[in-house]
Amino acid sequence: MTSQTLSEDLAWRGLIKDRTFSDVTWLDTPRTFYLGMDCNSSDSLTIGNLAVLMLARRLVEAGWKAVLLVGGATSLIGDPGGKNEERPLKTREEIAHNVAGIKAQVERLFSGQEFTLVDNYDWFKDIGYLEFLRDVGKHFSMTELVQRDFIATRMGADGGGISYAEFSYNLIQGYDYWWLFKNHGVELQIGGSDQWGNMLSGAPLIRKKEGKEVHVFSTPLVVNKATGVKFGKSEAGAVWLDAARTSPTQLYQFWINVDDDSVVDYLKIYTLLSASEIDEIATQHVAAPAERVAQTRLAQAVTELVHGAAAMQLAEAVTGYLIGKRPLAEASEAEATEISNNIPSIKLSADAAFVGESLVDALVATNLAPSKTEARRLVTGNAISVNGQKVTRPAFEQADFINGRLLLRRGKAFKDSALVILG
Known about the structure:
Layout: H1 6-12, E1 32-37, H2 47-61, E2 65-70, H3 74-77, H4 92-109, E3 116-119, H5 121-124, H6 129-135, H7 142-146, H8 149-155, H9 164-167, H10 169-184, E4 188-192, H11 196-199, H12 202-210, E5 215-219, E6 233-234, E7 237-238, H13 248-256, H14 263-270, H15 275-287, H16 293-307, H17 309-322, H18 333-342, E8 345-348, H19 350-353, H20 358-365, H21 372-380, E9 384-386, E10 389-390, E11 405-410, E12 417-422
Parallel strand pairs: 1-2, 1-4, 2-3, 4-5, 8-12
Antiparallel strand pairs: 6-7, 9-10, 9-11, 11-12
Helix pairs in contact: 10-12, 13-16, 13-17, 14-16, 16-17, 17-18, 20-21
């Protein structure tokens, strides 16, 4: 494949949605862009946020200068977009804690790249109310603001209403763009398509105050094709970039388990692999989907980007044990610890491990079965395996334990496994 321009590459990856410039080749001349991140909800980003951060990485690698903004000020107000009712206000201390957590994640994701990290609280904390109304509010039309979709929805008959504080969020974000234009030469704002209404505030403000033309560019939200739900959610909730909330092994497993129809799209969005590399992986995937070559490469790339090579390698090794590709006997202490951190585990004494219905009891104790009756049904129905081998007996045997450990599983799913430790 011949070398692609940035605009061609973004179009191939499906990353271009709304924009204020008519010709996408405008993107091919590097300038300075900014991406803002909300810190109201949490001290961690999710893989939903990661999609637009990967867009930012692509711009940086194409020669653009990056200004990455954490919203220490905007998060004190709350973004009204995508919400049917008011967000609860957080304290300055809560927001500062969230800002610190998200800053650390951004620094890790952009490690080795040149970027400027800013917090809009630094320039908002000293602005007077009258000053803001005169310098910013005077340039916004109420007619235009109330017609924006998310505001109109909140103000409509079926909406939950909107406070003046959240209504003013647009003005605050518009001021951010103007400030960054003046102080960092920013000429492009990027974000997810759900932020398009908010993002439209800055460009006209700069045009009115400075007589300069700047632009806004959004990328489509990633949606799970199988469920139609905004990507980044799992059965257990959000998939976080914080290892304490979603472990590297859980993150790796999330990508290993994505569906065949979507995996190539995710490779385009969430990895820095080239078009030629992804095309080669896609060819292998179509030829042998059961091998899960595409899912494996996706899991490796994203886990390494988010948590580093060592964490990715550990997650990959643990996954090998959990899916039966590696014998549990080979697990190191570090790997065994990581296994026990990611699946339920119980400890059995030698006196209790080989008598009665110890296997049945273990299924209940690790929540692999809701009751002993159901556990017995699963065992007799050939649905339970020990170290990858089907068993139909109610108790463990001495030979089941390898280095004092065994892997108990119901079915094939990662989440339906448990570690039993003899000791």
